[in-house]
Amino acid sequence: MAAEMTISVDQEALPKGAALVATFLASLFITIFLYGSYNTFLHPLRRYPGPVAWRAFRFPYVIATHRGEMHQRLKQFHEKYGPVVRIAPNELSYADGAAWKDIYGNRPGHLPFTRSTWFKPMSPGEPHSIMGPDEEAHAKTRRAFANAFSEKSLRDQSPVIEGYLDIFMKQLKAPAAGRQWTEKTVDLNVWFNFLTFDISGDLSFAESFDCLKTGKAHPWVEIAQDFGKGLSLVASVNQYPPIDKLLRYVIPKNIRQRQTDHRAMSYAMARKRLALETDRPDYITPTKKYSKEKVALSIEEWQVNMVVIVFAGSETTASALTAITRELVQNRGVLNRLTREIRNAFEKEDDIKIASTGSLPYLDAVINEGLRLDPPIVIGVPRVVPEGGDSVCGQQIPGGTYVSFNQFSANRQSRNFRHPNSFIPERFLNPDPNTDDMSSFQPFSIGRQSCIGMKLAYAEMRVTLARLLFAFDISLASEKDRWDWGEQKTYIFWDKRPLRVTLRRSRVS
Ligand code: HEM
Fold first, then answer.
1. Which label site among 56, 182, 452, 467 has the fewest CB atoms less than 10 Å from its CB?
2. CA atoms of 83 and 475, how far apart (whole Å)
3. What domains are defined for the chain?
């Protein structure tokens, strides 16, 4: 009897439960359908072209980000749909040079387009960093660090940078397996990373990561390699307020853990540097002076900003150096012309300094062409159109819309550049406005949030390439290892593959 009762109760409960689940699923399906239909047919951005699934939902954007394919998808979309593409229900991507000043510039009489939530604080109470969406925090931090990136500071910091370059060159010239060599194969991607991280570590924390000396990545640098991946995942879940905090748990535990460890390690290094009373040439000395004399930065503000700065200054420059060198060894005509320019300008390697590499026109053209073809900031950090809406490229856009200029996809459009996928530095020597739209080339962005380290980055790239090409004849280690930089994956930054080159001591060195 008891058994019969149990069975009859279960039989009743089962259809009820199933009906509940079915009702829930049907409502969910209808809600998703209505949401997608609204975004496609009724949303204020409905007239903008783009792939249907992307216009209706954000998940294709998130999936492409997670797969590291965003830059390739955007390039295809701009080729197919034109200079403005709707890449999410509330987001437009631009590949039109005129968009730079509208989105990122300071337009008199217009409210600022603020940064989106890509880099919002990770925990309650944490201050916004210089890269964050808060305009007030940005302005305060930018002012505080401005002196650290002035012409004078760059002059003071030059011997530090040149010192690391000495170690870099010494390591490349060092005997291999205890023997002198006439030919040696190295992975320059790794060595450029070591160089830029050591410089950044010194200028931020007053201690080198010693990657160059040891020939190994310091744990901080190793973790930082995954930093971009973690950041891009966080940035994509930040698009889903208010459930973004919950969604962070979807990010693999090991990546979250590495981010936490990285933060803890960086904060400890930042505090150690701040405790030092010194006037060494770095980012901290002028900023500390400003903080003492003008507007004080709290310890928490110091910490979050130093992590951003040490990373922003190293990964980007390493990426540019690797990309430019790959383009050089894959384009021998350009490599030969640049090598001639450098070897004609200097008698000996010791003469090659930051100050003496500032006026080599072909070197600058090569660097700019590398930044155009393979931009370190692949995807633009989106900005939010202010409340009430504003115009971009002559069209009125509703407030709250995310808008961005995406460098990789824009720089490789034939409407912007002739032979957009080819490495042609000559276009920067004599720009032809009929074929190359130089207004769309802004590798360091523009306006109040443009790159604070631009001068430093150019200085590092110039002096490194000049010393490398003066001392060595370089070539690809294997002709089979020839491919387009854009084939790599991106997670905010490029997921860089090795750059294996053969070095031979040059006749002049
Ligand atoms: C080739 C190398 C580099 C490139 C292409 C590059 C590019 C950029 C770009 C495009 C932005 C704007 C991001 C946005 O739109 O929100 C930016 C911002 C920034 N960069 Fe660089 N960067 C490079 C090197 C450096 C260096 C050497 C430093 C030195 C520490 C640095 C520090 C920063 C900082 C702190 C910001 C935030 C500025 C602000 O919001 O006021 N960058 N960079």
1. 182
2. 37
3. 48-505 (1.10.630.10)
